[in-house]
Amino acid sequence: xxxxxxxxxxxxxxxxxxxxxxxxxxxxxxxxxxxxxxxxxxxxxxxxxxxxxxxxxxxxxxxxxxxxxxxxxxxxxxxxxxxxxxxxxxxxxxxxxxxxxxxxxxxxxxxxxxxxxxxxxxxxxxxxxxxxxxxxxxxxxxxxxxxxxxxxxxxxxxxxxxxxxxxxxxxxxxxxxxxxxxxxxxxxxxxxxxxxxxxxxxxxxxxxxxxxxxxxxxxxxxxxxxxxxxxxxxxxxxxxxxxxxxxxxxxxxxxxxxxxxxxxxxxxxxxxxxxxxxxxxxxxxxxxxxxxxxxxxxxxxxxxxxxxxxxxxxxxxxxxxxxxxxxxxxxxxxxxxxxxxxxxxxxxxxxxxxxxxxxxxxxxxxxxxxxxxxxxxxxxxxxxxxxxxxxxxxxxxxxxxxxxxxxxxxxxxxxxxxxxxxxxxxxxxxxxxxxxxxxxxxxxxxxxxxxxxxxxxxxxxxxxxxxxxxxxxxxxxx
Length: 478
What we know:
Blueprint: H1 3-7, H2 11-25, H3 31-36, E1 39-44, E2 49-54, H4 63-66, H5 71-81, E3 82-84, H6 91-94, H7 97-105, E4 110-119, E5 122-135, E6 138-147, H8 149-152, H9 154-163, H10 173-186, E7 192-199, H11 202-209, H12 211-229, E8 233-239, E9 242-247, H13 252-264, E10 268-271, E11 274-277, E12 280-287, H14 294-310, E13 315-318, H15 335-341, E14 345-350, E15 357-360, H16 362-367, H17 373-380, H18 393-406, E16 411-419, E17 425-437, E18 441-450, H19 451-477
Parallel strand pairs: 12-13
Antiparallel strand pairs: 1-2, 1-6, 3-4, 4-5, 5-6, 7-9, 7-12, 8-9, 10-11, 14-15, 14-18, 16-17, 17-18
């Protein structure tokens, strides 16, 4: 390196590089990210005061006690929860104003220690750094407290990252493949079942309720699988909403009984007093009767699982040879693509006193000038009653149920006004179909059409047709 390059290496740049290296060593992507995740405060050692108090986990719950406290009280609170790793004095002594002032006068500018602590019943390891400096206000100490628990757990954490799915805690696909193939290699004489499991209509949870609910459902599904199939099984998240399970040392009869008990369990999860129900489609193949190669059995289980999906879902079936010839093109149409392509706004809601909205497609968001399902639910109060103009509501509900009494098809045809998010009033033609769902009870499937838009499209089409006819007539007479 030349002198010119050496001169460009300022202490500030070196400190920044050292900070980033230190943050990376602790498992943080950057020094900025580490600071956001760390607790800190400044102390005036002469006035025994604290300023700039910022607490993150695991110290956040101590904030109400610390926010009005003096420096010595803050140290006492930390000392109650923490003990030094080495046989050092307690924090209240190690970082007392007198001790820090003495160190500063002796020329020290930095003090560091590690402590073990138990907060809210959980064990942590914290690194405490203290920088001493003098400014116009006096001699101060800047404290930074980093959670370094993960350093102790690095080996197990790395192993989990390699083998386990971060969201569900199940084996990931690559680790699951290894464990299952090892089992077949070491126990070729056993009977076993390979299951392919798919959550039914999973995209609806993400689209309708948000990805946090989708993640909640995936975790709940994983826990139910562990509960029902945990005995000597390998449970894998294949990816997305698909799972694979190896039921070790099971006969076909035992496997069917176990899967049947799994289906008999209620599949639901609750958050903020709202319950989300879900179901599964399962296909399975038996080892060694239906194959001795793992990937061949997984493919057969996959074929059986899609057979279930083509026959109304929420069921399980064993692979059969005739399933190979089934037409699967209908499954290539994603549910979201299908409902987005339908020429009209779709609404599904409960036929009870709540009239809770269960589903809406993109055209319905656009009809109400909303950008998402969440925005529509917030605007409508999650009820069909609130999307109808209040002056039309009683008439509409009266007409719907009057029509349902007189026809055997569960159909109704009504028209009414709606008010969009921006306050526009639109006239809507509504075609509804009342059906019974085993999961939700009686529900309405509804198509809604903007009458003015329909009339404009029809009128514009007629104008074009008339213009083309006139042009043809003129051409014929010329």
